[in-house]
Amino acid sequence: MSKLEAIEPGNPLGPFEFKECISLVKSTGKKAKTLRELRELIALVHDESIYYHTYQYYLKRQVVEYNNDFAHWAGEGLEERTLSEYFSNVDHFSFKDMGDLRKALLKVIDDYLEQFPEPREVMPGSEFYFKEAIILVFPTGLRASNLAEFFIAIKYMDAPSVYYHFFEARMRLGSGIDDFSRWFEDGLGRKEVALKIRSVDPLMHTLDGVKEHLALILEEAVKKDMEVMPK
């Protein structure tokens, strides 16, 4: 047993099993070319479609300017930057119910239409296409029993794994808490590490950005443990 393992308390949750997911996307056959059409369809589509265009946006997100497909389309398709910002201000991680999230999205549109009742129509080919997705989850083969092993595993973790444990978990667990911080707090009793992980704002980072922040947090924790290890 290494010295780092020796100072870790017992873990009631067991080893952390890293998983990742893939998204099988299908079209709903519905599309919008105007903001009013978008509103009508947001009110009608299944929860799975709202989920895909908000939470699952992070699987393909490359820049932090947008945090959902509606904001992206408003900015790039409609070229309505103010509307795009309004959509991006909706923190979907704060909603525990998809119905409430749907209402918040509709309110964004309603408030905007009150100010600008005749927004432009997109060019042909730039319509908003509503989609749904089925998430398939499978193990990566990575696992960690303590802080040191977790720190090493993070370096080999792919983006779909970051998404599954840091983003998707917030809805899956129904508590707005990610898998990583939950394991550190409830499994290892490392609340200080858990709080630092929770301080990483999912709305402000890409998957690679989240991974980099996690690595820095864990590296700092490992160094502190090294400093207090018995000689």
How would you summarize what this structure contains?
The protein has 231 residues and is of the alpha+beta class. It is built from 11 helices and 2 strands, in the order αβαααααβααααα. Helix 7 (147-156) packs antiparallel against helix 11 (207-228).
Describe this structure in words.
- With 231 residues, the protein is of the alpha+beta class.
- It has 2 domains: 22-132, no CATH class; 147-231, no CATH class.
- Helices cover 52% and strands 15% of the residues.
- It contains 11 helices and 2 strands; from the N terminus they run αβαααααβααααα.
- A two-stranded antiparallel sheet has the order 1-2.
- α2 (35-44) packs antiparallel against α6 (98-115).
- The two termini are 15 Å apart.
- Mean pLDDT is 89; it is low at 1-9.
Low-confidence residue ranges: 1-9
Mean model confidence by pLDDT:
89
Structural class: alpha+beta
**Tally of domains:** 2
The proportion of residues in beta strands is 5-15%
Q: What profile does the largest beta sheet have?
A: 2 strands, antiparallel
Any idea what the radius of gyration is?
20 Å
Shape: elongated
Order of helices and strands: HEHHHHHEHHHHH
Approximate helicity band: 40-55%
